[in-house]
UniProtKB/TrEMBL annotation:
It holds the Pfam family VanZ. It comes from the Bacteria. This is Putative membrane protein, VanZ family. Residues 30-102 form the VanZ-like domain. Keywords: Membrane, Transmembrane, Transmembrane helix. PANTHER family: DOMAIN PROTEIN, PUTATIVE (AFU_ORTHOLOGUE AFUA_3G10980)-RELATED. The chain crosses the membrane at residues 81-102.
């Protein structure tokens, strides 16, 4: 399921980034926010979809971001932007942080529930 979500998101990002329609929101802040969010989500999904080394995941997504910028350089209403690639990279870092937080919360939950389970058994046997 994670792989399906990753590829659907990947194709959606590709389509939205390379469509020649001009967007209603042309502000720099929203453009960079979109890059950040898209690549954070892509990293998050890629992490759970495929068991790859962290540098491999970063490299794959950076190549994807550069590919988008190259395609945009050939579109009349778009242009190549190095700042967009930097926003993509920062988004990837955001995705790494999100994965860390989710794994940490899950680990803490598992530790807590195992302690509670052991306490429940201990209490049951020592009555």
């Amino acid at each position: 399921m994670a792989k399906i979500c990753f590829f659907i998101t990947l194709f959606a990002v590709e389509y939205l980034a390379t469509t020649s329609k001009s967007m209603a929101i042309n502000e720099v802040f929203w453009d960079k926010t979109n890059h950040f969010l898209a690549f954070s989500v892509l990293y998050f999904l890629l992490n759970f979809a495929f068991k790859l080394e962290i540098l491999t995941k970063i490299s794959l997504l950076l190549v994807f971001g550069i590919q988008i910028e190259i395609v945009q350089s050939f579109l009349p209403s778009r242009e190549f932007s190095l700042i967009d690639i930097i926003a993509d990279f920062i988004g990837i870092l955001g995705g790494i942080l999100a994965v860390y937080v989710v794994k940490r919360v899950k680990f803490n939950y598992l530790v807590l529930t195992s302690h509670l389970y052991r306490y429940k058994i201990y209490k049951k046997h020592n009555r």
